Amino acid sequence: MASVASPVIFKEFCPLYYLLNAIPTKIQKGFRSIVVYLTALDTNGDYIAVGSSIGMLYLYCRQLNQMKKYNFEGKCESITFVKLLSCFDDLVAVGTASGRVAVFQLVSSLPGRNKQLRRFDVAGIHKSSITALAWSPNGMKLFSGDDKGKIVYSALDLDQGTCNSSLVLEEPSSIVQLDYNQKVLLVSTLQRTLLFYTEEKSVNQVGTQPRK
């Protein structure tokens, strides 16, 4: 018996003016007018996260139709990667052009969820632009990669409010993609793709020939 095909859903695609209109196109810094470029994007069912060239993260809540802004203290630098996660708490990880990585634990109105915005910093291991971020499904592990080939593992304890980071792998070329599941980290670089087994700390390359 032939299987019944699932129905086709037609969707109309259009610019998200309600989102774009909430982000300034220019900001004033002293006597200078600085153009704001959108540099990073991630979405899930609850949020749309947009990184910018001025170091500001714009986070649009789909349920409340509200835009909130988060930034790094100090130097104004471009955000290069953002990664959302919805688990028991809503989390967003942000990476910048100089290698700074921060995690924001978002406020939730639901009972038993986080009631105060908290930020965790991955301290001083990356020295160059962040090119990839990957969460574990429970939000306790964050992996970050940069354009010099460094991959950092950060263990988050949201109850204790701690973030402990360490360098776990260093590749000779830029990291372009990270994905984590079941104690295995998928790593793609400009030269190769590999599986990194986090418990054994062993590497298994996918394929034998380097990328051209």
Spell the H/E element sequence.
Answer: HEEEEEEEEEEEEEEEEEE
Q: What general outline do the C-alpha atoms trace?
A: globular
- Mean pLDDT, all residues: 89
Indicate the low-confidence ranges by residue numbers: none
Helix content: under 10%
From the alpha-carbon coordinates, what is the Rg to the nearest angstrom? 19 Å
How many beta-strand runs? 18
Q: State the fourth-level CATH superfamily.
A: YVTN repeat-like/Quinoprotein amine dehydrogenase
CATH class: Mainly Beta
What fold name goes in the CATH topology slot?
Answer: Methylamine Dehydrogenase, Chain H
> Architecture, CATH level 2?
7 Propeller
Spatial strand arrangement across the major sheet:
3-4-5-6
The major beta sheet can be summarized as: 4 strands, antiparallel
Decide which structural class fits the backbone: mainly beta
The number of domains: 1
Distance between the termini: 47 Å
Core attributes:
mainly beta, Methylamine Dehydrogenase, Chain H
Write a compact overview of the structure shown.
The protein has one helix at residues 17-20; strands at 26-29, 32-35, 38-43, 47-52, 56-61, 66-71, 79-86, 90-96, 101-105, 118-122, 130-135, 141-146, 150-157, 162-170, 175-181, 184-189, 193-197, 202-206. The protein has one helix and 18 strands. InterPro entries: WD40/YVTN_repeat-like_dom_sf (IPR015943), WD40_repeat_dom_sf (IPR036322), WD40_rpt (IPR001680).
